[in-house]
Amino acid sequence: MNISENIKCVKLKELLVKRILAGDYPFNVRFPGIHEIESEYGVSYVTASKSLKLLEKEGYLQCRRGIGYFVLYTRQPQAIPNKKLNLLLLKECWHSHAIHLEPELSRFRNAGWQIEIVPLKSMDVHEASVAINTPDAYTLIYCLTTDWSRFAATFNQVCNRVLVVGKLSGCPQITSIVCDESASVHQILEYLRHEGRTRPAIFCNAKENELEMTRLGYWRQALLQTSVDLDWIQQHIFPLEVEENNSPDWQQEMSRQMAEYLKAHAKEMDSIVVAYSSDAFRDACRTVGLRIPKDILPVHIASPQWQETGKSIYSMLDHNISAHFETAFNILEYRYAKGQKEPGSWYFCQPLGVNLQSE
Fold first, then answer.
1. Is pLDDT at 112 greater than 70 in this prediction?
2. Which pLDDT score, from 0 to 100, does residue 78 have?
3. Residue 77 belongs to some domain of the structure
């Protein structure tokens, strides 16, 4: 696109933004398509197409393949009139954990909240941008991270209606509820010392998010205080190059990478922290011939009732998911009652210690 065409594109986009802000196109209705914009504004196909893509990128529109563009922006009401809550989580997570999530959601329902489950096909939260932008509902995002730059046009409206549970939101204006990683690391290392394990390793995601960076920071600090050599610590932090999505392919790839690390380093360590699938870890141990817990003692970070114990024995750090949802409930009740905007915050829930889990 040449400079002249680019200027036309930006100017057209700005005209369309003014009409959206004026309410000419209501929330979640179909926006004029490329040919309609060509005809109405007398511009080229390229200019119309690029303008729509800019509006989508800035969060004013959502493109639905084969259907068209739909409006995401709406004027924010002074207060949300009803107790409505959208719960966003991976489809696989809902199918496997619904029986355990339902008791946590019951406190919302008992207080008059209407809950809409929004299962996502992928880790891309933008897939549910309509639910997040719905002006008369709050949104609870469970264990997913979000690129908030894609909500630029509506961010000031949605930031007070959204809570993120189980992950740090990645944005200071969006409230996060997570486990206290300092307490988690302390409880894990205390348990391992009690079990006589003094050479612990840890798996992490190579694409470190804020929560994992926090955990690893406390991990390094705690081990250094026990006189473990920093070089040894660094060599036994194993980054997994996988995009978390809970699919069978993801599990298999995770198991393969875990097996590679275990094969290369198993003789150097006696325990390991696993913040991912215990099934994948168990398969990796089987692949390299490690016996759990005799050869290696894993500590899995999860709630015990959600653990896939399979045929192995696991030590579980209970990250206290009930406290996460109770905190979310209290925050939303407060926001609903006050009906006003408040700054984003981080809330830390205390883990409940390490428990032995077996089949």
1. yes
2. 56
3. no
- Tell whether 359 is covered by a domain: no
Residues 118 and 157 in one domain: yes
Single-letter code of the amino acid located at 252: Q
| 13, 46, 71 - which closes a domain | 71
CA 186, 189, 194, 198 dihedral sign is: negative
Return left, alpha or beta for 152; rule: phi > 0 is left, psi -120 to 50 is alpha, else beta.
alpha
Q: Are 104 and 322 in contact (CB under 8 A)?
A: yes
Instruction: Identify whether residues 103 and 219 lie together within a single domain.
Output: no
Backbone phi and psi for residue 23, each to the nearest 5 degrees, phi listed first = 90, 15
Indicate the pairing of strand 84-90 with strand 200-205: unpaired
Residue 52: the pLDDT is: 93
Residue 3 is predicted with a pLDDT of 56
- Averaged pLDDT for residues 163-175: 92
Residues 307 and 185 in one domain: yes
**Helical axes 45-57 vs 34-41, angle rounded to 10°:** 120
Q: For strand 138-142 and strand 84-90, is the pairing parallel, antiparallel, or unpaired?
A: parallel
**What is the extent of the structural domain holding 50?**
3-71
Rounded to the nearest angstrom, the gap between the alpha carbon of residue 69 and the centroid of all alpha carbons in its chain is 26
According to DSSP, the residues that pair with 116 across neighbouring strands are 86
β-pair partners for 239:
204
Per-residue pLDDT tens over the stretch 215-244: 999 999 999 998 889 999 999 999 988 766
Specify whether 171 is located in the same domain as 255: no
Number of domains in the chain: 3
In a domain, 148, yes or no: yes
Q: Please tell me the pTM assigned to this model.
A: 0.86
Q: 310 pLDDT band (50/70/90 cuts)?
A: very low
**Token pair in block for residue 2:** 């040449």
Is the residue at 357 inside a domain? no
